[in-house]
């Protein structure tokens, strides 16, 4: 029957059934699908639907055929077709197209799957609520089972493991009723996943073995690959490192032979995690960084966050984790940010907290590590995650050892061991038992503390231990844990014994081995100081070192910081250090015109719009083989955000008026002073654009958080402004510096730059005392018009939602519109006229002889660095008048 919504599929490249006997084709396709013959089902259904963009027929039968075809596509890995077809089905649901229960269930199934893949859990939950309505009872067992399995997946992502288990078990019963071994294997995998999340590791392993057998029986290689990935994870949680590696390696080979990129990605994530936990940092990086990029390209949010989590663990379990502190902070920060966005109460968010506690311990903040780990314990208990709770107690124990609280550490390790024993875990339990043995020996015989004595006592053999437990105990991975410099019990025992020996023999110099010696971070590249980013602050130094790490990568970088912190300088440095042959092309998003943004970005052909009289290259073309920098990205309107998102997704540029696209290779940087999280939450900024831009986030600290750099910055800015080195200390005396350290500096380094540059002409005109007085009266208080009294600061910009809002108001023309440093101020003795005292309304005026005072114009040009329009604004005169005066000044000099 004709569709009541002619636009249903007119906006998509879709499949529309045209066969008259589509019902018989659907019946035959269901037989293939029940048997797991995905390719046969695809070949049967594909001819029944015709690709077109001008569809006028969209009846329930064609949509049912489309839904079944998408089931086959999802197993065969046809990602593009899956996305297009799902868009049609979701549109049918949104527009209220009349559907029979079977078609509606299939449309709901694919809509839920896509929402979960993209991390839209809240929207998926609202769609899943419709599955409780009476119409679902009229759906076939096979379709209902698939819907239940997706519902179980959603409930697990939302942390409701009881609901997930109910849905998975119900899906298994329905699969048995449908007599489909392939579907039953899928249901068993879903049940095993829930059991794995509940950390019933033995039960999950047993169920997965049954699923693999079913897949093997029906010849479903794709399903078997998925089951192998899940089996590898279950074995990893169980502590069987050797078995887990074998399962992941087998699934990787199977995914490569089948061409399944999603299964290949998950296999390599598992192998990367194993390498991370074994201290093989470089191997982990080689696996996890490409996996992270692949997950971002495919839009797999959970896998993207897992890659970051495992990468941070690789850095933390490195032989010397202090070498990787900037990278660890960056990976963990981005991971926590995205994990909280997916589900703040979920398992990944919890695991991020545990790794943050480990990071605090490595940074030698044991009290903070204990506090964060105890919060993770409460989180794990609340959400019933026993494996994570055991890990959190383990970190609590290590932190308490560093604090010297050995009894508390013994108690924490005991809690961890009890949980690991209950889970049947065979790896971390040995590590925890080693700690308990070392601490127990301390309590019984504190003077027996040599490493040889600690190694002589292996961990207690558990009752009923299997033969391969001893194999796991003696793997290199376990040895790495026991001897780890920061958290290993044998390393701690050895270092304590070494300290005791040193106290008895003070003449012996104790030198730490190179692999555990304190690591001094390398100095930042000279590129930064050449650009003006000079610092002694550890926070900014870490940001610069992290920038150097990612400078040569092609991934987007988002720079955050208040106005005046140097975001443009950081972008310039990233480009200079990238080694790219192209240009750095800045784009001021705050000044972008909505109607012309696409033409500015992509270019335009002649006649594409009114006024386009010639071909025009876009900014992205200008940045080819270089870097394009979107400054103040948060100010882009939604339509312009869509244009930018299109380029980030495809990498293609199609000029306005052209029909052909062209790929352009360029690096994308973006910066903003605003809170993008709040803008995403309010709907002002696109979530998908944010996720693509925030591959790496660099945060520039405000000046008030790096006041240790104040003398260094003043010296650099003074020399750059042309001041004599010997004059600087006469203006910026120790007393002045003490006062400046108490100011809020809402304009940050930009405000400081103005203060320094304005003090130089003031010093020359009126002396050091007047320059000091002006600085003490106004410097560091923000951009104001002089209405505040001496020393009275405006409200701190960081207290508002828009960091640097005071500076932003000045930039946009708010306030008085004049430069406050040249506003009148009373710094001369009473009764004496000032030599440079302009009126508040007309600063520049002729002298009694009818001549213009050239000194004022010269001073204004010095402050404006030769820019005549800026000098005009400083002096309060028109631009044309300033240009006439400038010509007269040049003529008088010539």
UniProtKB/TrEMBL annotation:
Organism: Eiseniibacteriota bacterium
Top-level taxon of the source organism: Bacteria
Residues annotated as domain Sigma-54 factor interaction: 533-761
Pfam families cross-referenced by the UniProt entry: AAA_lid_14, Sigma54_activat
Chain positions covered by the region annotation Disordered: 449-472, 496-527, 781-848
Keyword field: ATP-binding, DNA-binding, Nucleotide-binding, Transcription, Transcription regulation
GO BP field: regulation of DNA-templated transcription
Polar residues composition bias: residue spans: 460-470
Aminoacyl-tRNA synthetase keyword on record: no
Biased composition (Low complexity): 798-811
Keyword Lipoprotein applies: no
MF annotations from Gene Ontology: ATP binding; sequence-specific DNA binding
Protein name (record): Sigma 54-interacting transcriptional regulator
PROSITE patterns: SIGMA54_INTERACT_1, SIGMA54_INTERACT_2, SIGMA54_INTERACT_3, SIGMA54_INTERACT_4
Biased composition (Pro residues): 515-526
């Amino acid at each position: 029957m004709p569709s009541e919504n002619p636009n249903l599929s007119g906006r998509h490249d879709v499949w529309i059934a045209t066969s008259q006997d589509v019902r018989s084709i659907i019946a035959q396709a269901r037989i293939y699908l029940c048997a797991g013959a995905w390719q046969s089902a695809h070949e049967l259904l594909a001819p029944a639907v015709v690709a077109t963009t001008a569809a006028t027929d969209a009846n329930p039968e064609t949509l049912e055929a489309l839904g079944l075809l998408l089931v086959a596509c999802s197993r065969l890995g046809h990602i593009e077709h899956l996305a297009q077809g799902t868009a049609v089905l979701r549109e049918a649901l949104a527009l209220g197209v009349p559907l029979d229960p079977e078609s509606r269930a299939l449309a709901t199934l694919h809509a839920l799957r896509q929402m979960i893949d993209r991390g839209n859990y809240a929207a998926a939950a609202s769609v899943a609520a419709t599955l409780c309505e009476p119409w679902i009872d009229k759906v076939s067992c096979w379709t209902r089972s698939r819907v239940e399995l997706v519902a179980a997946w959603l409930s697990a992502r939302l942390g409701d493991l009881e609901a997930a288990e109910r849905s998975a078990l119900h899906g298994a019963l329905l699969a048995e009723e449908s007599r489909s071994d392939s579907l039953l294997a899928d249901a068993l995998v879903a049940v095993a996943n829930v059991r794995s999340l509940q950390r019933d590791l033995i039960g999950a392993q047993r169920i997965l073995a049954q699923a693999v057998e079913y897949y093997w029986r029906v010849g479903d290689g794709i399903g078997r690959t998925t089951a192998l990935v899940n089996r590898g994870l279950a074995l990893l949680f169980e502590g069987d490192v050797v078995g887990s590696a074998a399962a992941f390696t087998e699934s990787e080979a199977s995914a490569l032979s089948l061409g399944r990129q999603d299964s290949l990605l998950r296999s390599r994530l598992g192998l990367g995690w194993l390498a991370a936990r074994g201290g093989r940092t470089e191997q982990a990086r080689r696996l996890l960084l490409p996996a992270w990029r692949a997950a971002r390209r495919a839009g797999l949010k959970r896998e993207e966050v897992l890659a970051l989590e495992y990468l941070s663990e690789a850095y933390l379990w490195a032989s010397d984790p202090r070498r990787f502190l900037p990278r660890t902070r960056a990976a963990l920060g981005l991971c926590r940010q995205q994990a909280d966005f997916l589900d703040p109460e979920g398992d990944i968010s919890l695991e991020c907290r545990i790794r943050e506690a480990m990071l605090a311990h490595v940074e030698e903040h044991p009290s903070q590590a204990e506090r964060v780990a105890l919060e993770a314990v409460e989180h794990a208990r609340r959400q019933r995650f026993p494996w994570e709770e055991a890990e959190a107690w383990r970190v609590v124990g290590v932190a308490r050892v560093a604090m010297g609280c050995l009894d508390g550490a013994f108690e924490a390790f005991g809690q961890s061991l009890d949980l690991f024993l209950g889970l049947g875990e065979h790896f971390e339990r040995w590590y925890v038992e080693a700690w308990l043995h070392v601490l127990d020996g301390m309590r019984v015989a504190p003077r027996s503390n040599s490493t040889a004595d600690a190694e002589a006592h292996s961990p207690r053999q558990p009752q009923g231990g299997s033969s391969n437990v001893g194999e796991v105990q003696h793997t290199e991975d376990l040895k790495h844990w026991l001897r780890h410099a920061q958290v290993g019990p044998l390393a701690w025992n050895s270092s304590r014994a070494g300290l005791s020996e040193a106290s008895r023999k003070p003449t012996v110099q104790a030198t730490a081995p190179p692999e555990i010696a304190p690591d001094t971070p390398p100095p930042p590249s000279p590129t930064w100081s050449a650009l003006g980013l000079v610092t002694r602050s550890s926070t900014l130094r870490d940001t610069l070192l992290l920038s150097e790490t990612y400078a040569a990568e092609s991934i987007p970088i988002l720079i955050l910081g208040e106005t005046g912190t140097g975001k443009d300088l950081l972008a310039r440095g990233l480009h200079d250090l990238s080694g790219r042959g192209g240009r750095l092309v800045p784009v001021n998003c705050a000044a972008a015109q909505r109607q012309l943004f696409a033409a500015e970005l992509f270019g335009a052909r002649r006649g594409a719009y009114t006024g386009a009289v010639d071909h025009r290259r876009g900014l992205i073309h200008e940045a080819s083989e270089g870097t394009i920098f979107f400054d103040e990205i948060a100010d882009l309107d939604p339509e312009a955000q869509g244009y930018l998102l299109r380029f980030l997704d495809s990498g293609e540029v199609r000029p306005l008026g052209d029909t052909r696209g062209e790929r352009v290779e360029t690096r994308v940087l973006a910066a903003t002073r605003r809170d993008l999280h709040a803008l995403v939450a309010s709907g002002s900024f696109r979530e998908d654009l944010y996720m693509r831009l925030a591959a790496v986030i660099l945060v520039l600290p405000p000046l008030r958080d790096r006041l240790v750099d104040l003398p260094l910055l003043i010296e650099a800015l003074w020399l750059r402004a042309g001041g004599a080195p010997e004059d600087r200390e006469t203006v910026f005396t120790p007393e002045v510096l003490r006062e400046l350290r108490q100011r809020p500096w809402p304009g940050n380094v930009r405000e400081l730059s103005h203060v320094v540059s304005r003090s130089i002409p003031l010093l020359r005109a009126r002396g050091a005392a007047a320059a000091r007085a002006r600085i003490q009266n106004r410097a560091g208080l923000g951009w104001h018009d002089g209405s505040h009294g001496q020393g009275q600061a405006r409200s701190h910009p960081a207290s508002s939602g828009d960091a640097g809002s005071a500076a932003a108001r000045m930039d946009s023309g708010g306030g008085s519109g004049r430069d406050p440093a040249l506003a009148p101020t009373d710094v001369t003795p009473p009764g004496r006229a000032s030599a440079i005292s302009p009126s508040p309304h007309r600063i520049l005026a002729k002298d009694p002889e009818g001549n213009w005072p050239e000194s004022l114009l010269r001073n204004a040009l010095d402050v404006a660095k030769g820019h005549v329009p800026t000098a005009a604004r400083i002096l309060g005169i028109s631009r044309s008048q300033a240009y006439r005066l400038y010509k007269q000044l040049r003529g008088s000099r010539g």
